[in-house]
Specification:
two-stranded antiparallel ribbon; alpha/beta; 17 helices; 349 residues; 9 strands; 46% helix; TIM Barrel; 7-stranded parallel beta sheet; homodimer
Amino acid sequence: MPKNDTFLRACRREAVPYTPVWMMRQAGRYMAEYRKLRETRTLLELCKTPELALEVTLQPLRLGFDAAILFADILLPLEPMGASFEFAKGEGPVIHEPISRVEQIDALRVIDPQEGLGYVMQAIRLLKGELSVPLIGFAGAPFTLASYLVEGGKSAHFVKTKRLMYEQPAAWSVLMGKLAEVVRRYLHAQIDAGADAVQLFDSWVGQLSPADYEEHVLPHVAHILSDVETRGVPVIHFGTGTATLLELQRRAGGTVIGLDWRTPLADGWRRVGHDRGVQGNLDPTVLFAGADLARRHAKRVLDAAEGRAGHVFNLGHGILPETPVDTVKAVVDFVHETSERRPRGPSVG
Amino acid sequence: MPKNDTFLRACRREAVPYTPVWMMRQAGRYMAEYRKLRETRTLLELCKTPELALEVTLQPLRLGFDAAILFADILLPLEPMGASFEFAKGEGPVIHEPISRVEQIDALRVIDPQEGLGYVMQAIRLLKGELSVPLIGFAGAPFTLASYLVEGGKSAHFVKTKRLMYEQPAAWSVLMGKLAEVVRRYLHAQIDAGADAVQLFDSWVGQLSPADYEEHVLPHVAHILSDVETRGVPVIHFGTGTATLLELQRRAGGTVIGLDWRTPLADGWRRVGHDRGVQGNLDPTVLFAGADLARRHAKRVLDAAEGRAGHVFNLGHGILPETPVDTVKAVVDFVHETSERRPRGPSVG
């Protein structure tokens, strides 16, 4: 058990002395230490070298975060599954052979993560000896991973992905089923290696209508979460643009549901249900406008949570590359200090 | 008054014999006639030559749409305001000198649309002699226009736009005020020229939280709509990703509120209020998956509207360039035939 387990207790909706805070992508390009390492190493080299992944994971903890998140990338499992990719300079991920035929789906391997992803579990084991806060493991969710596989990279409208889903629902189901099974095994392996909590990133699922989510995505997410939740570690279920999906995401699973900045936290929590935790939901762009404005917006988030047990403070999406470190630190301190002084609400809503 | 005024009557929530249908970007690249014209002309040449804008506007009407929308682009007003741009091949719009300094905002001209945009009104006057369905004029909304001006083109995270909004709220307000006043005048001029209805496109406003929309955008949209609505023509207020903004959009104004595909139509209409019309909301990507599937999804939209007066059938966003024309036609016919047979609901909810 880490020395500071506030984050884990908040995930479980237990009483905590203050609201714990971490930020998605808290290890990354906004930090000078990270940029220095990247001068001589690629992103994938950092991910695949446990000693370096450890170093990068630890870097942001000097800012006072209440949890560490393993430095890795959601696309890592695709490579051992048979879909190689790279991070092209300034363009984000590029899948070498995007999926356009059923045979490519059939050829994807449902791997044992110990084989192709052992370096991730090794980094987790190394980290466990170094940390005084909980370690969050993570994976991409099937829809988000499928979108990269089919589009070949980032996408504006996800036309190819949805087209496969609509036109070839059987092939889609096979693809989603393979991804879900790999992710399920991968999260188990991370927990086995020592992850204290895990987060499922369904970053792009907000492109779907509720009806399409329910039919084409929910069963695959539930396959993962219903099983991983039996491990007893908190499971965070995150997406963006999910304002119309929250009830379905709850049904798919998660100890804690992530809210992006477009859903007011009080409304989102009511819809998720007060018998679950919520994580979020500061707009990452407010961190560009100085500490005073960032604190004002952070206060809105804390006010919306009403001191209720079960709130993990976070951004509504990942921290952006040019974000000023000082403002990040100012927000972390503000959340701690302000929430510590606030009367605590009931632990069950 | 056009021969077929079903669309206008539906906007006013009057009883109609069937649900009228049009599609955003119904004139465009998915049609062979349009692609042929584009072989020798740029998009801006088509917009700026009233005879060609007329020709393109008329092209899709053979598919049975109940309204025509003027062929133009939301960015046209930016040029006479002093911000030149072009459409770069395959990249979308490129603003030549994106706004990064307050002096650039101060230099923007609040134009009389008759001066720099007379060709738009001329196209409207020409069209009025040719149409048997209502003609929809349109403009981009201030936030969406500002985002192009500040980002220099399309954007993933709208960081520069939001940064200006958060860091320099006074400069932001000047920029939004100038855009709003130009758009207000521009919509009046289109109505003067003969537009039977107008639509305000706030395509990217769904990037904002409700609190930020209310503070930084709503007053400027209301400045436009509260005034234009006095003209007595239907005003459609459209955005995407607006699931958490609908109540505020209603407050900002609009005879009809547009719903994107992520908000189930029945929920969206309830939140907008049954004393307003709604427009939408088929996912444009379903048109890629064959007529049967498209009809199934269109039926869901019609079912959600429950035959209530005030529904205009549309996509949830613009039609995509590679969309098969036959499927578009199949959906138009299906909406007409199915809604004609359906028992009509009450005209006021």
